[in-house]
Amino acid sequence: MSDSCGTSDYHIGELPDERTLNCAAKNQVPLQHRARQINRVDLREFHYIVAMDFSNKKNIKHLLEKFGLEHKNLFLIREFQPEPESPEVPDPYYGGEDSFEEVYQILDDSIEHFLEYLKKGEDIYV
């Protein structure tokens, strides 16, 4: 199972940005998700947690400490790319449609490599 959530509490319950929806439709990715905030259950139950940038990773580490939890599988998603241009996924919000497509391509590549990483794991059933 996979899920997507933010580390802050703004936009909870909202649909994705229209440009995100357009990019997803263009790439045949169904999106019906509404924004939600990461919580203690997520941090305890998910085997892997991947963040888009250093700020979110730092916030997740803070939440882990706050809840008295440890998580050895906390990564930046671009850590799985062989040679990323940057360790962080850029925020497309202030750009145009092309910025959202760029982020889609980054995530598509990163997730492909993440799945390869998982397939190599002993405790993964793919």
List the helices and strands and how they pair.
Elements (H helix, E strand, L loop, with lengths): L17 H9 L13 H6 L3 E3 L2 H13 L7 E3 L20 H24 L6
Parallel strand pairs: 1-2
Structural commentary:
- Residues 1-117 form the Phosphotyrosine protein phosphatase I domain.
- GO terms for molecular function: protein tyrosine phosphatase activity.
- It comes from Cecembia lonarensis (strain CCUG 58316 / KCTC 22772 / LW9).
- By secondary structure, this protein is mainly α.
- It has a domain at 47-120: Response regulator (Rossmann fold, 3-Layer(aba) Sandwich), CATH 3.40.50.2300.
- The protein has four helices and two strands; from the N terminus they run H-H-E-H-E-H.
- The chain has helices at 18-26, 40-45, 54-66, 97-120; strands spanning 49-51, 74-76.
- It has a two-stranded parallel sheet with strand order 1-2.
- The longest helix has 24 residues, at 97-120.
- It is globular.
- The termini are close together.
- The model has no long low-confidence stretch (mean pLDDT 92).
